[in-house]
UniProtKB/TrEMBL annotation:
Coiled coil: none
Keyword Cell membrane listed: no
InterPro entries: Isoprenoid_synthase_dom_sf, Polyprenyl_synt, Polyprenyl_synt_CS
The organism of origin for this protein: Ampelomyces quisqualis (Powdery mildew agent)
Named cofactor requirement(s): Mg(2+)
Region of interest: Disordered: 67-117
UniProt xrefs under Gene3D superfamilies: Farnesyl Diphosphate Synthase
Transmembrane segments: none
Aminoacyl-tRNA synthetase is among the record's keywords: no
CDD domains: Trans_IPPS_HT
Biased composition (Polar residues): 100-109
Protein name: geranylgeranyl diphosphate synthase
C-alpha cells in the first residue's frame, strides 16, 4: 500500500548523534574538583535509556522537513564561534563533537535533510535534557531513599546524600550555562520552567491528594490531580524539550505546537507505564527497586483505578500505607482489580494522541522513529 508505515529502530536514525552524547555530557560536567567531578559524572557511567535526548534528536530531524519561512532557523550564533568559548574552565563547554559538519554551523534556509539536518544547538539541547533529567534522578534517589539506579548502587548510596544533592545542583548549573549559550530566550525560558515544574510535581507527589485528608474519598479530581502531577514530574521535560527542538529549528508555530503535544502525550504515557511497571516487573529487570511506590506512600494510577471500585483503599491512601500490612493489602487489591489494565489503556490513549499530533509531518525516517518511540514506550519492561 502507498502509505504503509515505515518501521524502524529509532536509535539507528540518530545513532551517529547519540554516539557523542555521553562524551559531550561528560565534557559539560568537568570540574576541577576531583570528587565533584566523579560524583557529577557517576550516572554517565551506566547505560541510561536516553529517551529524552533521542526524542529531541528525532524531533529535530522530523521537523527539519516541515515547511518554514526561509532563513528562519534559529541557531543564533551558537557553535559559530564566540558563544561556546569557555568562561570558567578550559574546554568544558567547547563544542568538540567531531561529528558536527561545518556546513550545519551556519544559517541554511535551503538545508538538505541527512547528515546536517540536526543543528549543533539541537544536539546541545539533547544533552541539556539528559542533564536536567539526571539531576532530577540524583535528587529523586535521595528523596526516595533509593538503593539502586541503572543496575548499580545509586549515587546517594555510593557517595552519600550530601554529595548526591550537590552533584544534582551542579548538573543544573552546568545545564543552565549550556542553555544560556544557546542564546535563545524562549528556549531558555522553556527549560527553566521545566526545572521549576519538576519541583512542583515532586511537591504534589508528597501529598496524596490536593487536601491530604485522613480518609480521602475517591472523586474524579483524584485522577485529575494525579495527571497534573504526572505532567509536571515527567511530561513537562519531554514536551517542552520537544517544543524547544522545533523552536531552535525555526519551525512554524503549528509545528512547534504539534511537537509539544507529541511530547506531552508521550510523556504522560511514559510515566503511566512507569507506574505500571512498579507493580509488574522485578528489581532485576528494572535496574532499580520494584514495588517501591507503595513503600514510599505513593498512590499511582494502578491503585487509583483500583480504589474507584474498592473504597476501602481510601483509608490506606490517607495514611500512606503505613499501617500494619497496608502495602501487602494494597498490592492484593490492585492485583485483583482492573487497575493495571486501565492504566495501560490510558497510556495507549495518550500514545495514540502523540502519534496523531505529528500525523501532519511529512513522512520520514525520523517521523517513523517518533512513532516507533510510542510503541517502545508501551512495550518497555524497564
Ligand atoms: C523519578 O520518579 C523522578 C522524577 C521524574 C523527577 C524528580 C524530581 C525532583 C526530585 C525534583 C527536584 C529535582 C530537580 C532537578 C529540579 P520516580 O521516583 O517515580 O521514579 P524512579 O523509580 O525512577 O525513582
Ligand atoms: Mg524514585
Ligand atoms: Mg520519586
Amino acid at each position: 500500500p502507498p502509505d504503509a508505515p515505515i518501521t524502524m529502530d529509532p536509535f539507528q536514525t540518530v545513532a551517529r548523534e547519540m554516539k557523542f552524547l555521553t562524551g559531550n555530557i561528560r565534557q559539560l560536567l568537568g570540574s576541577g574538583h576531583p570528587t565533584l567531578d566523579t560524583v557529577a559524572k557517576y550516572y554517565t557511567q551506566s547505560e541510561g535509556k536516553y529517551v529524552r535526548p533521542m526524542l529531541v534528536l528525532l524531533m529535530s530531524r522530523a521537523t527539519a522537513l516541515t515547511p518554514r519561512t526561509p532563513a528562519s532557523r534559529r541557531d543564533s550564533g551558537f557553535a559559530r564561534g564566540g558563544v561556546d568559548t569557555p568562561i570558567t574552565e578550559p574546554t568544558i563547554l567547547a563544542d568538540e563533537n567531531p561529528d558536527t559538519p561545518i556546513s550545519s554551523r551556519s544559517f541554511d534556509s535551503a538545508h538538505t535533510p541527512g547528515e546536517s539536518d540536526i543543528l549543533p544547538s539541537q544536539r546541545r539541547l539533547a544533552e541539556i535534557t539528559e542533564l536536567i533529567h539526571t539531576a532530577s534522578l540524583l535528587h529523586d534517589d535521595v528523596i526516595d531513599h533509593s538503593i539502586s539506579r541503572r543496575a548499580a548502587p545509586s549515587a546517594n548510596i555510593e557517595f552519600g546524600n550530601k554529595m548526591a544533592v550537590l552533584a544534582g545542583d551542579f548538573l543544573l548549573g552546568r545545564a543552565s550555562v549550556a542553555l544560556a549559550r544557546l542564546r535563545d530566550p524562549e528556549v531558555t525560558e522553556l527549560l527553566a520552567t521545566v526545572i521549576a515544574n519538576l519541583v512542583e510535581g515532586e511537591f504534589m507527589q508528597l501529598k496524596n491528594t490536593a487536601r491530604d485528608e485522613k480518609n480521602p474519598a475517591w472523586t474524579e479530581d483524584t485522577v485529575t490531580y494525579y495527571l497534573q502531577k504526572t505532567y509536571l514530574k515527567s511530561a513537562s521535560l519531554i514536551s517542552k524539550s520537544c517544543r524547544a527542538a522545533a523552536i531552535l529549528g525555526g519551525s512554524s508555530p503549528e509545528v512547534v505546537e504539534a511537537s509539544y503535544l507529541y511530547g506531552k502525550n508521550l510523556g504522560l504515557a511514559f510515566q503511566l507505564v512507569d507506574d505500571m511497571l512498579d507493580y509488574t516487573v522485578s528489581e532485576a529487570e528494572l535496574g532499580k527497586p520494584a514495588g517501591a511506590d507503595l513503600e514510599l506512600g505513593l498512590a499511582t494510577a494502578p491503585l487509583l483505578f483500583a480504589w474507584k471500585d474498592n473504597k476501602s483503599l481510601g483509608r490506606l491512601v490517607g495514611r500512606k500505607f503505613t499501617g500494619e500490612g497496608d502495602v501487602q493489602r494494597a498490592r492484593e487489591i490492585v492485583a485483583s482489580s482492573t487497575g493495571l489494565q486501565q492504566t495501560r489503556a490510558l497510556a495507549q490513549e495518550y500514545v495514540d494522541k502523540a502519534i496523531e499530533a505529528i500525523s501532519g509531518f511529512p513522512d520520514s525516517e525520523a517521523k517513523a522513529g517518533l512513532v516507533e518511540m510510542c510503541t517502545k514506550v508501551m512495550k518497555r519492561r524497564k
